[in-house]
Amino acid sequence: MWNRRHGRLRTVGCGMEELRRRRREREAELRKARREQQLVSKRLLRDDTPEEAEGGCVALILGEAEIQQFLWLAQRGTGEKEREGALVSLRRGLQHPETQQTFIRLKGSMRTLVGLLTSNQALLQLEAARCLHELSHSEQSAVAEACLPATSYLLTYLAGHSSDLIELCLYTLGNLIVESESVRRQLLPQGIVPALASCIQSPHLTVLEALGYALSQLLQAKEAPKKIIPSASACSSVLSTPLPQHMLRLLQPGPKLNPGVAVEFAWCLHYIICSQVNNALLITHGAVSTLGLLLLYLAGAVQRSEDAGLELLLCPVLRCLSNLLTEAAGGQVQLRDERVVVSLFIILQFLLQKQPSLLPEGLWLLNNLTANSPGFCTSLLSLDLIEPLLQLLPVSNVVSVLVLTVLCNVAEKGPAYCWRLWPGPLLPSLLDMLAFSDTEVVGQSLELLQLLFLYRPEAVQAFLQQSGLQALKRHEEEAQLQDRVHALQQTALHR
Amino acid sequence: MQLPPALHARLAAGPGAAEPLPVERNPAAGAAPFRFAARLVHFPREHEFFEDGDVQRHLYLQDLFTRVAVEPEKPRVPEFTCQVAGCCQVFDTLEDYEHHYHTLHRNMCSFCKRAFPSGHLLDIHILEWHDSLFQILSERQDMYQCLVEGCTEKFKTSKDRKDHLVRCHLYPADFRFDKPKKSRGPATPIATLQVPADALGDDREQSEGDAMEVCSEHVAPRTEPMAERPTYSHRIPSTICFGQGVSRGFKSTKKRSKHQ
Ligand SMILES: [Zn+2]
Ligand SMILES: [Zn+2]
Ligand SMILES: [Zn+2]
């Protein structure tokens, strides 16, 4: 998968400490970009020798004359080796932003490069595609946009048979897609959606992963819910192609599941599903059961602590399932197996240890599983999962609220459920929560207490014995809580 | 977080679910001042709830969500030659050979030996250039299919098609759609997707299938070392084959043994 292929390249030049520092910086930038709705990323595909891979430092800045010379040699050099060599030199130069700028300012250079891209000579063509790819990866909009004359050719080659070239075209297109909406307004009429759809049956995993990347870049676009996903608008939309069925096929668990490919398509599915364009269609294709089985598979892998990169699938899969469950079109009906709940707890345990920032997403799914399902609420009780759930309470306020909400889902189902909640560890944990000051956390604790007292009046006595009234008193003055605090005090005192 | 030991066994066992306990709600539950009601929650893509997950996704995209892993070396093999009759390209990796084969030999027109980037374009080419009924039919109905896969439009002339491609599919105006038929042999309307020809002095013959040279006028003034280079009129060594040139000059059908 992507990081396996490229991990080595990234760590050759610098130590782990340096890598961590860069990651922290980048994370802060990404967070900021996310808040400004500017979150875009590009990928750089370099299949290079290690010397070359060590990064920008090796890339020579080329001047205008040198660029011209390489282009000229690429067209007219004696023999294939020389021509190819000239393009290799040009490509290495293009790894440097300054060379990129010079290149796009040079009149006719892009035209020549596009000419080389359409060459009949396979290796020359591949090398030209690599040059374009370097340019497409640029952070300078002007550089990436200079590649636009090439897009109709890049799209045409997607229907070809050379997996190397297709992969390269896909990563290049994937980079260009996120450049701007105007770029996408050019790519859509050029037929990018059917062209991408034509690749999905490729037997090459590298092509599939690249396809997933390009498609996820397209689906991530702000205008995707209106212009790219809908099935109404004829041949140029994703839902009207066979893409959805194939995406689900590539997410089917089993020995054929490729983590790198699956990660990309799971994100594609997330972008489609959260847009709520036509989730009924996906459900008809079996999206809920496929994702449910995938969740079981992921839990199995996590439990065996396999280091296969499958954990990258967790986030998009949790999101897809959770959002699909909110569909009226029967998302719930396809999911009855209690092993889904079992898997989710194994995954929650994994997230707590490895990626606690994703815990809320897992608990969100648990909420959507339990909200309307007496069956899953019963499983939570019969599989002794209340106590592990309570252990998550201290993680953060967001997590506490979600845990309490799930417990409310169970409690609101009535006396039979609350009989299983008390006696037990629930009440002491709730009393601990009342010591918090976060209004939402305390508020949700009050809701749960009300349900518990209503359906399991015996719990009131225990509450009083454990200084519950004093705990409530702390929040008497809080505007958003006081009504509920008073109501609970009344219940407790007049029982 | 301590999970009950039986849980792992449950995952390994078959599907199933507990018999749900009876649901029995009291209207007082969630009544004011309380407000809880079990709800399914949908989050749209921009919701801040997704921030952490989105950031991780992009760290992965940018290669920073990574652990050290070893990449397998490209397997090197002894040099070998393309086996296709008339082709004599030499390779030292299987990848290069595969790429060459797929680009040049996979979608090749069996009549005129031109290579096309896709099966769709090859089909159109064969129809328009080697199907004797095409000319007759095209006088009566629109026969020129759009080149974009998935578009079902057809046109009376290739010129109309070109206009459509430029207007509706935003193809570049210099996209190489039509190459006039030359007396010397078959040409192709969709000319293996070569961009450049218009850029050249128009009536210059395209030589040896060398698609790129036509851009030359744009590669501005040649610098000294380049100017010194002799410009061969026939500069393609006979050991190298090109898609368009395959039919010319490479009649040899000898097959060299290749090593795997
Ligand atoms: Zn060959
Ligand atoms: Zn032909
Ligand atoms: Zn069309």
UniProtKB/TrEMBL annotation, chain A:
All copies of the IBB domain together span: 1-52
What PROSITE patterns is this protein classified in? IBB (PS51214)
**In the UniProt record, does the keyword Mitochondrion occur?**
no
The processes (GO biological process) annotated in the record are: protein import into nucleus
Q: Which SUPFAM superfamilies match?
A: ARM repeat
**Entry-linked Gene3D superfamilies:** Leucine-rich Repeat Variant
| GO function term, MF aspect, one | nuclear import signal receptor activity
InterPro entries (UniProt xref) = ARM-like, ARM-type_fold, Armadillo, Importin-a_IBB
Lineage: superkingdom: Eukaryota
- Report keywords, A-Z: Membrane, Transmembrane, Transport
Q: What is this protein called?
A: Transmembrane and coiled-coil domains 6
UniProtKB/TrEMBL annotation, chain B:
Q: Which residues form a coiled coil?
A: none
User: What is the top-level taxon of the source organism?
Assistant: Eukaryota
Task: Write down the PROSITE patterns for this protein, in alphabetical order.
Answer: ZINC_FINGER_C2H2_1
Q: Tell me where in this chain the C2H2-type domain is found.
A: 82-105, 109-130, 146-169
Q: Which InterPro entries match?
A: ZNF511, Znf_C2H2_type
**Name of the protein this chain belongs to:** Zinc finger protein 511
